Amino acid sequence: MRLLTHNMLSSNIKGVTNGFPLRIEPETITQKPVDFNPDFLKNMFSKIDWKALSQASKIMGYAELPEDVPDQTVLESDEFLKKFHHALLEIHLEEGVLVCPETGRKFPVNKGIPNMLLHEDEV
Amino acid sequence: MESKDEGMVVLQESGNKNREWVSENQTKPNLVVEGIGIKIELEQYPTGAHIASRMLYTAENSFEDISGKVVADFGCGCGTLGLAATLLDADFVFDSHVIGVDMDEDSLEIATINADDLEAEMELIQCQINNLKWRGQIVDTVVMNPPFGTRNKGADMEFLSVALKVASQAVYSLHKTTTREHIKRAALRDYNAASAEVICELRYDLPKLYKFHKKKDVDIAVDLWRLAVMSFCAELLVLLHIFRVRKSLKFSSKCN
What we know:
Chain A is of the alpha+beta class. Chain A is built from four helices and four strands. In chain A, a hairpin with a 6-residue loop joins strand 2 and strand 3.
């Protein structure tokens, strides 16, 4: 699971009002190279929840992103875009759990696939 | 009955029907779709490689909805549509980032094997579509071959409604031609789609998979839909328009 995916996943347990972001408890982390596409990143920048990304990235062992939302002007810097690219697309959570911020319910991640299935009493 | 949409392409003319299927069988890549315990309660039917490639090719070539985009494949099963989206990249400059969603663990396992075989990168999430909650509209395009809703009533509409919520650009979906009117009405009226168009009519070659299938193979008429998502600006314009109409109505009633 990439951090791009983590940035949109939300806990949808019945009664939960704020299921985002899911806290990551990593066990195995892998990295896979992806082609660098600055236009894609510039477009994604406005859609991403920056705090969730920078925190998730830190937990995954990559602390190169600024904690607070950077100014739009950073998009002109290739150095910044490359860090953003790496955090968003190249770091994978292979094994671990995602924790619902409100209920503490754990969603397991096996072989890179988060299991977001809900139990009957959670729907 | 609604007249055929302009510009609709009927991919299979009756004259060369047989030839078409022969060619499909020949071009089928070695994806694993058969030989698994297919689950009827989930209405699992494999998407033919021919339909998948037509769907993704049209989405990219006519509408630029695939390359360089975040694409979600709802009810991805063995990953045929999502993987077709990643394979399109070979012809284009930019990678698309594909996320397949399915509730069935066995299907996801096969999707993983298929992706590895094709050396394609596809993210997978195990989740039921009607329980899916995604923050914002990070996904640009949703492609899907949802359950037709024959055995599990309303499943097709559930997929459609969620897809139109998470996509920022467009949804491509296959539905039985017999449900055309219903889909159009629901998409525009209930799910807030900006437009709903059948972009081509296909024949879905359904092999005999389940015991209750009486005939050996069945051809089902299927529509390939493109549903455009209402953008925030478009929504504002619509509201503004309604406001103006109401105002002018009030004005004219005063005059009378």
